[in-house]
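new request in #modeling-help
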Amino acid sequence: MGAAAFVFLLALVAVGALAEHIAPYPLGKQDLQNVLSGPSRTHWLGSDVLGRDLLSQLLYGIGPSLVATFEALVVFLVIGTTFGIVAGYKVGAVDAAISRVVELVQSIPAIIIILVVLGVFPSSVLAAMVALGVLASAGLVRVVRGSTLSVREELFVIAARVSGVGPARIMRTHVLRRILGPMLAQASVFAGLTLVVQAALSYLGLLSSSAHPTWGGMIGDASRVLSRSTWPLFPPGAAISLTVLAFGALGDALRDLVADRAVTATRRTVQPATAAPVDGADAPAPPASDALLEVRDLSVVHAGAAGPVSLVTDVSLSIYQRETVALVGESGCGKSLTALAVLGLLPPGLRASARHLHFDGARLDPGVQDTYRAVRGRDIGYVSQHALASLDPTHTVGSHLREVIRRHEPMSRRAAAIRGVELLEQVKFAEPEQVMVVYPHELSGGMAQRANIALAIAGRPKLLIADEPTTALDVTLQAEILALLRHLKNSTELGILLITHDWGVVADMADRVVVMYAGEVVEQADTDMAFTHPRFPYTLALMSANPSTADHGSKLPTVAGRVPPPGSWPVGCRFADRCPHETDECSAGKLALEVADTGSLTRCVRAGSLLAAGALPR
Amino acid sequence: MTVERGRTTGLVGESGAGKSTLAKVVLGLVPVVEGTVGFDGAEISGLPAVRRRALGARLQAVYQDPLSSLNPSYSVFWSLAEPLRARGISDRSEIAARVGATLEAVGIESDSRDRRPHEFSGGQLQRICIARAIITSPELVILDEAVSALDLSVQAQILNLLRDLQAQRSLSYLFISHDIAVVRHCCHDVTVLYQGQVMEAGDTVEVTDSPAHPYTHALLQASPVANPVAQRKRQLPAPTVAAPVPTGRSSGCVYAPRCPFAVPECHRRRPQLREIAAGRTVACHRYPEWTEGSTTSRVAYTPAQRL
Amino acid sequence: MAFLPGDAAVSLVGRNATEEQLKQVREDLGLEQPVWAQYGQWLEGAVRGDLGNSMINRQPVTAQLNGRLAPSMSLIVGATLIATTLGVAIGILGAQRGRIGRVIDSGSIGGLAVPDFWLGLVLIVLFAVHLGWFPPTGYVRWNEGVGPWMRSVALPIATLSVPATAILARQTREAMSTALSKEYVRTLRAAGIGECSILFRHGLRNAAIPVVTVVGLVFIGSLGGTVAVESVFAIPGLGSTAVHATATRDLPLIQGVVVYFTLIVIVVNLLVDLAYRYLDPRLQSATATDGAFANSGAAP
């Protein structure tokens, strides 16, 4: 699209420059035999009221138009860039003054100011274009200032300043590079605008009415003979629209070109998943029926352009009433996706499937939203990591609570309000009535998380899924929130699925631990066993890498490398590459969870021999 | 507070404590309102911009988010060469040699130097940021939450790398963190901050084993240890009530509104930092009385028994 | 202003007038005085609400322009209302499904590329010349009959609405997509809240904040659009007056239009500000509660 626009504009410039040589008729040549003719062999685009060839007129109109556009563009870029950079880099009084002027200029329609200018300099194209450039540059000042300001605060610019790089060099290397994209995009869109303004002014007869045709002037001529023929209206209108469209498309393309860079910065290289056949033989014993949540072989797949990529593979876990199960693992191992898949709330583009997903006896199907309707909020509550972002900023805490309460238990607004205060008391707010009328932004992080928990338990759920509920909080607040969750679990028989990366939080909260690595469960154990007798080498490695349990100043035992990203998972044990005990049998094929000596489940095929060799604690 | 040569000094505290502001002051990114910053015996606060810039080679920093610390438009080589060029080094072969050697020192293969930041993992990027910080052979490196965003296994790798580099190059670190467990593990000395005020300072093991300030004690208590048996004894017995903490300037101790040991004196008068042992200071009116009532603090943070 | 090539005196007495006639007219108009003195006098009057007299017909500028206000406002308010209704509806629809979104994006680019005056002419050809549904040009005052008034403003309003709708549809779509991708939407879904409430009670409510700004911009954009569109449809409004005044170099009259435009812009911005304050609670309580609960936040 952008390339086509660019080629079109290049062609336009070329045709405009060569108009005299390629136009079928000389400038101003009248053909009184063919007045107001439609498209014909002699006049490809027809002729006007004086029999002038419309195609030739269009071609002759290009040159002067583009010259005028160029004049406006120069003014626009020089003023916009200079003042934008100065305002963005010299924050303070200079910036404030420039911003005020920009606001003022931007608030009044440019066209009326241009009329004033044309009142003083009648029919002057140059005056009109300079005025337009000055007025429109306010927008560019804003964009450039914004980019400059944000680059200034980037860590890499701060790092450069710390290294002693001077302001002039920072401008040249970091700032200019960043603002180039938005600047070119703006300039392209502005070029389109100049054409429209020129056309409008010529149409209104406010620009020089010399013999030289202009696109706007052609429309003006056409408008005077509408009752006789409407055809001459269309060629110049289409020419203007197409050109403006091309400038707009070019601008969009330039913008995307810049945005692309930011996207690639976060994009991971994803390779197709090796399709693992669902094999029932290695599945653990059939689920016990008294579990609150029963998950068997839950998988999440990203339907990428290069084929599906597996993000979570065959996760199985169960949670009982009044039990806290911790789902532990490093970032990117699929813990959060597992939780969202259980709730049926995966982001678009991700698909979940499970061999068996039951909640309190009822079957849930990750592919069918309707199966969740009765469960979400009522039976399963959810608390996320970002306490403040989880609340709608335009609604009060009370408004949130009332809506959720009445969704699950039909009652009057007043009754819902009373229940809301109760809930806030339950999460230990000292002044619940006051919190009801408060907006999220007036809450601190810890308080917002309490409000989220109140919201999550509003439907009196049996299970709470808490995704890193305290990760973004200070430790003292974390301790408070964890104590609150423990209290709720004991007082309301709540089962909790706690997702965390922090082994301290696991030790504090969990009854049982499920350890995930690279999208699959590698170990499942009672909490004490997981800490004292891990049966998977990765779990052991994490335990010893934890500074909170290591000796002061000691060198931490580490495993080399990192978690492989989705798409590059090996066939056998996914930890094999990093494991100090790896042998050929580890990569031989798909591995199943086995029961270890401690009763834990482990996916380590060598657990027994490692135990015998003393590599795992006895 | 002071950072001793060749040692790691921790700066610990929660959000709003002013840790990062302090780092910016030391780095000359924000002006000093009151007080002075001395470096290698000379005062560096209030230096003119040009002379301040010259200090860049001796005073460096590593930040929490490695991806945004490197310009996505430039190669790793370019980012590493930038501080050298700022020093006026323009000899291409010298720059190439130093970039290669430094990358090797942080464990990055030097043939990946032409790649852009987005092609690396978080741990690798943090290694590259460390390489940029040490390429000019600085004396002091400020580590501003430099391992906070990293996963446990990668965090351990980076902590080990920092430890090795310190031994090889006699670097001094100012280690800023909200995680007292990490600070305890890797710092020689520690300063505890709360709302911009120093609560206590001293040798890390002494401060964390027997905190002299109730805030340090609270911080240690709240920080969970990865040992379920020990942690169950340390966890808060019952949920606390969330009441708004009064803010605004008071003439008393900044921690007094949250302090369980506060007496009227604490709300009236701000305690001064005083020395309680060699190299050990605390700002608390109630020290040492408060420690007598809570012997738990002594047993609480002995590192959990090794697995 | 004598240094300027041609002035109002020329447009008044014609190009063939004698030097004496011109001099006489210039004296009458005060054109013999230096520019800054003329401007000073004008400013002095403007502060008192007197924008001077037109150079051409010697009528007070304010009296002339007050009569032009109603037609212009009919067009602008009508276009803004239609564009807001249509644009927001299309935008919400577009935020729902991927393909519609792309159609809206390309449609809005097209809607912005077509020059408004040309679009007006095309509409005249289609609906007035060919179909005869509406009068091609002219304005009927609403007290002369509501039906004819509506018919007379229908085409100009439609003309102004096209680019305005394009902008609003695109901005609404973006604002809705942004609002619906926020974390609180997931939380609300997890709490069992229905899609309808999420779309309107939460999504639209949050999207409304940026959209209101765009409505203000669209209103001001339509104000600028009247300059060409009123000329096309021969509507006696502020815009066509400005064009006419420019053509005849009637500076006091143009300046008068600028003053009127400025006042309208100020009022609109004020209204947008008020709407903003109503829609965004973060602005309401910034000073009121002083964040009684908002101390000690999250870890870095």
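bot summary: The longest strand of chain B covers residues 197-203.
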